[in-house]
C-alpha cells in the first residue's frame, strides 16, 4: 500500500506535492537509453553484460561526482583535476565497500555453517552453496595502502632535519681553500 493510499484510507488531507517529487517521478517514468532494446535485434546479453555493468558503474560514479561537485563548497570545482580526484575517491570507496561486502558474506556463511554444525544438523541446500563460495579477491595494492592519500602530518615532521641558516649556507657553499695536496 502506498503512502498516499494510507493517507486516503485514514482520511487525512494529502499534502501538496513538491515540484522536486514531480520531477523525480517524471524522470523515472521517461524512457532512458538503458531501457531501450538493441536496434539491430541481436541478443548478445551474455557478451555485453560485463560492459553494461562497467558502463552503469561509471555512470553511477559520474552522477555521484556531479552531485558532490554541485553541492560542496569547493573554490575551483569546475576543474578537470578536481573532478578526476572526486571520481577516484568515489571509485575507491565503492571498491572498499564491495570488498567489505564480500568478506562479510563469506564470514557470515562460515558462521552459519558453524552454527548448523553446533546444532548437529546439516545446513539446508541453499545455504551450502553460499558457504562454499570462493574467497573474495585480495584487494589491490592501492586498496591496501591508502595511507599515501591520508598521511599523518606528524610522519613527515619526524623525517625533517633541522639546521641553522648558517649551516645550510655552509653546506651549499663550502669555503674556498687550498685543494687537497696543494700547499
List keywords for this structure.
183 residues; mainly alpha; 61% helix
What does this structure look like?
The chain is mainly α and about 180 residues long. The protein has a domain at about 65-150. Helix content is about 60%, strand content about 0%. It contains eight helices and no strands. Helix 3 (about 45-70) crosses helix 4 and helix 4 crosses helix 5. The chain is elongated and about 100 Å long.
Topology:
Blueprint: H1 3-10, H2 19-29, H3 45-71, H4 80-119, H5 125-131, H6 141-144, H7 153-158, H8 165-172
Helix pairs in contact: 3-4, 4-5
- Low-confidence parts lasting 5 or more residues at pLDDT below 50? 30-43, 147-151
User: Helix-strand pattern, N to C?
Assistant: HHHHHHHH
Mean pLDDT: 71
H/I helix tally: 8
The dominant shape is elongated
Strand runs, count: 0
Largest sheet: none
Distance between the termini: 103 Å
Alpha-beta classification: mainly alpha
Region (Disordered): 1-61, 123-147
Biased composition (Acidic residues): 45-58
